[in-house]
Amino acid sequence: MKPSFAFLALAIASTPAHAVDLDAVRKVITDTRTTNAPGCVAGAFKAGKTLFITSAGMADVANAKPLDGDTQIYAASVSKQFTVLAAATLAVQGKIGLKDDIRKYLPELPQYEVPVTVEMLIHHTSGVRDWLALSAWAGASDFSTATKSQALDLLFRQKDTNFTPGTEFIYSNGGYLLLAEIIERVSGMPFSDYATKTILKPLGMKNSMFMNGARPTQGKVAHGYKPQGDGFEIRDTYPTISGSGGLMVTINDLAKFDHDIEVGHKVWTPEIMAIMVAPGRFTNGEPAVRKPSKQAYAGGLMVGERRGQYFVQHGGGAEAFKNQYQRLPEKKLGVAVFCNRSDWDPGEKADAVTELVEGAILTDETKPFNGRYFADELQATYDVSIDGRELTATVTSPYAKTGTSEKFTRSSDGTFRANGTVLT
Question: Do 401 and 407 form a contact (C-beta atoms < 8 A)?
Fold first, then answer.
């Protein structure tokens, strides 16, 4: 059993970190083909202190404006831990009950066969459908134009959940949009205002913001980019709705957040921490684990063992933005890698930065594999091979072209992904 964060904070003395090779860090986040390309901002924090914040690449390629620690980057699903943090502040005040039926706050929802609770939204065990998927199925192609009222209307119209609430884990941006709406109604102010008042402002995160239907108009804002031919095209297609995403954050500000987790405890109090890091559970008592990962879903955070270490982490992706913020509480280390390009894996890069700080502490969990599977209903044979972080699946069937195959890349959560498809 892993020790609690509270125990670790008391029992583990801070150890001085060795000098980190910043050139090696920048090499991890640099496009070696050209200097005029998007890239990443990387930061590492130890025992509440910033070891370094460095960057490589452009926030604005056309105007040659570089990324730096004060660049606002779309956090995507890294935002979810901030949404739960906002909900937790209300929970510790007794204003939100984590085991409450969400219809107490959202009576527009239908009466499901089994009530959905607030903590089910937090842990993705609710079965509430993903508002991004619903929008796509309804014909939307540009999520940047979506409004909160449209997204909520889609969710309120759903007559059922994807599964019996509390029995499965399916990641849902819809659940987090509903969670933000609950926070808004209970607090009596827009979610973005409440989260700013209770999180950003107390921590001095002055250059970050939660969007409420509009993009930032001040500060240095990064464009997102997707490879196109020999260059890149701007893809600022992220939603401006907060809850499931919506945080625009700088890495300098994220350092202040990390400091509060480790030593400040202005927002991240012991009572809040208990909500944030407690693994979710199904109604049968088993932890809410997304297989094949060994990690359970807690308060907008994945917690548990990965690559031989105990991690608390969450990634984020919105087409052209790919982010990873991970912490190793036993080493009092936080690492963030936020990238404004669609073709890089921030989890892989964050792991590389982690080892540049701590040495070769991460084990390789990917073993070579070859196997064949047959699906009778599809008349299809699948030849699957895993080599390193790459999985190749070749399909043979009456419907497939000869040699039809697809390659998937292993993500830091243990799943294999390609073109929006996730293999678990």
Answer: no
Residue-wise DSSP of 301-357 = SEEEEETTEEEEEEEEE-SS-EEEEEEEGGGTEEEEEEESBTT--HHHHHHHHHHHH
Half-sphere exposure of 20 (CA within 13 A, CB side): 26
C-alpha–C-alpha distance, residues 211 and 318, integer Å: 15
Name 78's Cβ contacts closer than 8 Å, sequence gap at least 6.
247, 249, 314, 315, 316, 323, 324, 325, 338
Q: Which pTM value belongs to this model?
A: 0.85
Phi, psi of 27 (to 5 degrees): -65, -35
**What CA–CA distances, in Å, run from 235 to 139, 148, 226, 329?**
19, 21, 6, 35
Compute CA distances 15 → 76, 146, 326, 353, whole Å.
33, 47, 19, 18
Phi, psi angles (nearest 5°) of residue 82? -75, -35
328: tokens are 């190793």
CA dist list (Å): 21 to 18, 45, 52, 216, 315: 9, 15, 10, 34, 25
What is the C-alpha separation between 178 and 122, in angstroms, rounded? Answer: 10
Over the chain (424 residues), what is each successive 10-residue block's mean pLDDT?
Answer: 35 49 97 93 98 98 97 98 98 98 97 96 97 92 90 96 96 98 98 98 97 91 95 95 97 98 97 97 92 89 95 95 98 98 96 97 77 74 76 82 71 56 53
